[in-house]
Amino acid sequence: MLSSKTVSKALSILDAFTAEKPSWGLRDLARYLDMSHTIVHRILSTFEEKGYIVQNTETNKYELGIKFMELGNVVEENLKISEMIQPIMKRIALGTGESVVLTIVDNEEGLYLKIVESEKSVRFSESVGKRSPLYIGASHKVILAHLPPDIQNKIIDHGIENKARQIDTKESFQVLLEFIKKQGWFYTSSETFEEVAAVSIPLFDKKNNILGSLSVAGPDYRLTDEQAKKILPILKEYQENMNFILSKVFFPSRRNYLMNNLS
Amino acid sequence: MLSSKTVSKALSILDAFTAEKPSWGLRDLARYLDMSHTIVHRILSTFEEKGYIVQNTETNKYELGIKFMELGNVVEENLKISEMIQPIMKRIALGTGESVVLTIVDNEEGLYLKIVESEKSVRFSESVGKRSPLYIGASHKVILAHLPPDIQNKIIDHGIENKARQIDTKESFQVLLEFIKKQGWFYTSSETFEEVAAVSIPLFDKKNNILGSLSVAGPDYRLTDEQAKKILPILKEYQENMNFILSKVFFPSRRNYLMNNLS
DNA sequence: TAACACTGGTTCGAATATCGAACCACGAAG
DNA sequence: CTTCGTGGTTCGATATTCGAACCAGTGTTA
Fold first, then answer.
1. Are B100 and B89 in contact (CB under 8 A)?
2. Which of A16, B30, B110, B203 is the right S-S partner for B140, CB 3.0 to 4.6 Å?
3. Where are the beta strands (DSSP E) in A109-250?
4. What is the average per-residue pLDDT within B175-183?
5. Which residues on B lie below 8 Å from A104 (Cβ)?
6. Which residue among B2, B50, B70 places its CB closest to the CB of A45?
7. How large is the average pLDDT for residues B191-205?
8. In chain C, which nucleotides are within 7 Å of a protein Cβ?
9. How far is B165 from chain A (nearest CA, A)?
């Protein structure tokens, strides 16, 4: 595949802006990316000209512009999230009294795509767009359990390399995944976040490829093992519906990991 | 200001993806942008490689990737929207029973930055990220009324050119703007959207530059002129608070239109 | 059937936009 | 006053981009 060096560099620059580090000084950013500050400057200027990046007048640092909220919304509309998906999540949130999380698989990682928070004052509250490895947490494991074995392997190995506390031995973890797949749902407590528990079910496209998962998450003192079993039927009630919607809209996630796998 | 031709082209391509036209065929897009399909293809490939754009496997058309939802969220976190601003808007929504809209000025246009919907089944519901000229609707006019006269002029002229039904004569419109500025709020009915009414107050930074507006919007049969006057105190109650928050976070909008004005 | 008009994707040499060492101007710290 | 940091700019050598012309595939028309 032919690709543009310049655009590729420009996108690497964008990738440097994260929730953890949302603003960068010019030379600082150039060092981080191992690029000449001249080229970083020219690219940032171009972004600025087009309204994609703004330079904070007080600190001189660069930040992502509102344009990304606009484009983010184009994607959201395209995926029919506010129109079709959110109402369902809202109903589950009201029915269970806990927050509802839609997770998708993207490039061998799990990503919170949408969260509808419960009305309670103590509730699970996280920002969407957060990525993490697929071996952590119910919402992610339930996805991993339905991925093809070779990708599972790759991801588990990655976890072992990084000494993930969720993985004891490779064999025991594979047994766990098999169990999750057979059971069709999973419950965890204090895994991704301290004192937070979650029940998750997998979501598929019409060809039964895993797309993501739907979870109910809340404080572990309220969302106990027993409570999770009471919540499960409510989640399952909407499973087919969610599968149908996600299959209708174009869901890029599946393609991404397949491509990765081929290369 | 030195800028990169290639990156500039790449961003023009991104600009083509809107809520109205969220997916493009290669040659169709190239024609629209008046560019060679070769270069559009190379740039799209680069975007795809980096996860910024995905090609729909069924239609072969290109669409924005989930990456934009991620970056959009970085901006949202940076602006402290979910953390500081949304709770206030939610309180107003509960207090008034109607939807609450945060509008900002960006590049001489109004932009819905955040909407918190009311709980009623008939309510104002629109997608954020929508742009429109500043002479339409209460939320926009209340901003226009506080912009410097030369920018006002430019925008009004633009409206007259496009035969906007909101502008009768330039003089009468300027009188209206002066009235709005003096009054400190404004109410309109069926202007931006049919059968939708709104009350709006302006929002400023610490130097009293206009940043945007805060509005309550609902169906016109419920949100009448008299009802608006009852709602106004609730809005005003939070005005200082919103000004303070928006001044604290870096708000790029002001800078944008000042830059435009200089050029 | 063949001819046509589309689509997305690719090649390669000529043309040109990019790169980066070296350069400002400024400010803070020693 | 020197040093080191910041953001920003210049210009010629050179690596990258450009685009006419090219596939291969598909759906339409005659």
1. yes
2. B110
3. 109-116, 131-133, 186-189, 196-204, 210-219
4. 98
5. 66
6. B2
7. 94
8. 6-11, 17-22
9. 27
- Where do the H-state alpha helices sit in chain B? 5-15, 26-33, 37-49, 67-78, 86-96, 138-144, 149-161, 170-183, 225-237, 239-248, 253-262
Whether the CB-CB separation of B48 and B24 falls below 8 Å is answered with: no
The SS3 of residue B263 is coil
pLDDT tens digits, A28-50: 999 999 999 999 999 999 999 99
Question: Which residues from the 23-82 window of protein chain A have CB within 7 angstroms of nucleic acid chain D?
Answer: 25-28, 37-38, 41, 44-45, 55, 60-61
Distance B253 CA to C11 C1' (A): 45
Contacts 24+ apart (CB under 8 A), B161-167: B162/B133, B164/B133, B164/B135, B164/B136, B166/B135, B166/B136, B166/B191, B167/B135
Give the CA A55 to C1' C17 distance in Å.
25
For residues B127 and B19, is the Cβ–Cβ distance under 8 A? yes
| A24 CA vs C28 C1’ separation (Å) | 20
Res. A250 pLDDT band, cuts 50 70 90: confident
Whole-angstrom distance, CA of residue A188 vs CA of residue B64:
33
Torsion A189-A190-A192-A197 (CA) sign: positive
- DSSP summary character for residue B35: -
Nearest Cα neighbor of A98 from A224, A252, A190, A3 is A224
Residue nearest to nucleotide D18 (CA to C1'): B39
B95 touches strand C (CB under 7 A): no
Tell me what pLDDT residue A254 has: 56
Q: Output Rg (C-alpha) for chain A, integer angstroms.
A: 20
Q: Give the integer Cα–Cα distance in Å for B150 and A36.
A: 41
Closest in A23, A46, A74 to B4, CB measured: A46
Q: Which residue of B has its CA nearest to A260?
A: B49
Q: What are phi and psi of B110, to 5 degrees?
A: -95, 145
pLDDT above 50: residue B133: yes
Distance of CA B81 to the CA centre of its chain: 15
How close B218 gets to chain A, by Cα (Å)? 19
Flag if A250 and B1 touch (Cβ within 8 Å). Answer: no
- Chain B: residue whose CA lies nearest to A44: B3
